[in-house]
Write a structure and sequence with these properties.
Blueprint lengths: L1 H29 L3 H40 L1 H28 L1 H8 L7 H14 L2 H17 L3 H6 L2 H14 L6 H26 L13 H16 L2 H14 L5 H36 L3 H38 L6 H16 L1 H15 L6 H24 L3 H23 L7 H28 L5 H26 L4 H14 L1
Length: 514
């Protein structure tokens, strides 16, 4: 499982790096203002549905069913189920897309009410949203095909295909902008074009695996009904984090112009560890848990759950420590160029720290949720999710005036911790979460190592100081990250959490094989 975890995490990391390049171009060309705000809201809409219908509720319901059918009844039955599900999804999402295109002005009044204060931002938001909305259909279909590949334990292409989003997006910004009214239009068209490329790559990969997925005509078979019954409640349960981010965006549109942009770029840095570790853990853990539980191997399921918790915290906590200490330099080096000024970068760094506080909770939600989904329970996360949504909204209202654009990120972080606490308590009551003593000990020692690393980074930062030139700043930041990583590794070794010699030997063996 750890090998699959690293495979998915590696491809996701590469995708996030390319995404960072894409975001740097967006910041440099559009800055933090009306155009950037309009584009980010236009992208938020299909992205929200993608996380809910594609990666969230649908995947949470589809992957366990598909894996179970594949294990018990063979490839033919599993392929038939996947093709029928793909047909149902395409018809439903196409209908939803048509409605969205027709009623986009009304939709934007709901998700971006603050845009009504400036007619230019509202009109641009409607136009861009109509361009990006078809991405919903394409990427949700791609998520289903990726779920099939994951169920077949072909994790590489399922993760690698998402590189296309950033590759096509970068190309659109650089080469299509001269032919568009402005950069925002080029970026919007790049979003939809990337969906076509991603779906095509994944379908091609399935074909190569001998698992062609030509969609069947929609029909509500008993299995499709079961899929729908499991999916509908999961729309809230598995998408709490994304819905909370959407609430953050709604609140941000009511704040001064540029608030949406400042929060977006902060969230992009936060998404590097969150996307890599959360996606890797959730993607690899769900089919593993499903397989163990289907075979009646309860102890093996607990062991897999514990290993995932250890892995994600081992890699997440140093990221939190590093971001909290180096948020300002990170935002300046990565985004403080062109139209996005150094002052904008420092403002965005405040939101980044607020997001980073909740990073462990955001990732743990991805680790704990599969424990429900693998057991066919998508209802319990719904009830928790509804409460978390209400709680997050109340916090947003309390924070928006005194904290402005920092309020929504802080509210999301606090809500994420409450979400994790609720999930963990219920799983323990059901004996579905049993932390071994070794796991608890490793978690405590990992927290201690991250705290010591943060103190060391802070001391070195104060001692060395932040240089003035861009090249020296890049070298400074890279050196600080390397120093923090080495310090963290040494501390883990001293505390007995890892054995550096065996880790290095394993890395050498892997490199020599390649």
């Amino acid at each position: 499982m750890f090998r699959h975890f690293l495979t998915v995490g590696g491809w996701t990391m590469l995708s996030r790096i390319l995404g960072l390049v894409r975001d740097q171009l967006l910041a440099a060309f559009m800055g933090a203002g009306i155009m950037q705000d309009a584009y980010q809201v236009a992208f938020r809409l299909p992205n929200m549905f993608r996380r809910l219908f594609g990666e969230g509720a649908f995947n949470a319901a589809f992957v366990p069913l598909f894996s179970s059918i594949l294990t018990k009844e063979g490839e033919d039955e599993a392929r038939s189920f996947a093709r029928r599900a793909l047909g149902v999804m395409l018809v439903w999402l196409t209908f939803l897309c048509v409605l969205g295109e027709i009623f986009m002005p009304q939709v934007l009044r709901v998700i971006a009410p603050g845009f009504l204060q400036t007619g230019e931002r509202y009109a641009l938001g409607v136009s861009l949203s109509r361009i990006t909305f078809p991405y919903l259909v394409l990427i949700c279909a791609a998520a289903l095909v990726a779920g099939v590949l994951n169920g077949l334990h072909r994790f590489s292409m399922a993760a690698a295909a998402y590189l296309a989003f950033n590759v096509v997006g970068i190309a659109a910004i650089l080469f299509a902008s001269p032919f568009m009214p402005n950069v925002a239009y080029a970026a919007a068209w790049g979003v939809t074009a990337s969906g076509v490329v991603q779906l095509g790559l994944l379908l091609w990969s399935c074909q190569r695996a001998g698992f062609g997925l030509m969609p069947l005509w929609p029909q509500l078979t008993p299995r499709i009904r079961l899929l729908v019954r499991r999916m509908v409640p999961g729309l809230v349960g598995s998408g709490v984090g994304q819905i909370n981010l959407t609430i953050d965006t709604i609140i941000a549109t009511l704040l001064p112009s540029g608030s949406v942009s400042l929060m977006y770029f902060a969230d992009r840095i936060n998404q590097l560890p969150l996307g890599v570790l959360g996606a890797a853990a959730g993607t690899t853990l769900l089919p593993v848990l499903t397989r163990h539980l289907a075979a009646g191997e309860e102890d093996a399921a607990h062991s897999a759950q514990n290993r995932s918790i250890e892995y994600v915290l081992l890699l997440t906590l140093p990221a939190v420590a590093g971001i909290l200490v180096l948020a300002g330099p990170i935002m300046i080096v990565l985004f403080g160029h062109g139209s996005f000024t150094e002052h904008d970068a420092l403002l965005s760094a405040k939101a980044l720290r607020a997001y980073a506080i909740g990073l462990p909770a955001f990732v743990m939600v991805k680790v704990l949720s599969p424990a429900f989904f693998a057991r066919g329970d998508t209802r319990t996360p719904v009830y928790i999710g509804i409460g978390i949504l209400v709680f997050n909204f109340v916090l947003n209202l309390l924070f928006m005036k005194p904290l402005l654009y920092v309020g929504p990120p802080l509210a999301s972080s606090i809500a994420a911790f409450v979400n994790v606490a609720c999930l963990a308590v219920i799983l323990r009551q059901r004996s579905a979460l049993q932390l071994a003593s070794t796991t608890t000990r490793r978690i405590v020692l990992t927290v201690a190592a991250a705290l010591i690393m943060a103190v060391g980074l802070f001391g070195v930062e104060r001692l060395v100081g932040f240089p003035a030139s861009l090249l020296l700043r890049m070298l400074w930041l890279g050196s600080m990250i390397v120093f923090g990583a080495l310090l963290y590794g040494v501390i883990l070794h001293v505390l007995g959490v890892i054995d550096l010699a065996s880790v290095l030997a394993r890395i050498r063996r892997r490199v020599s094989k390649r």
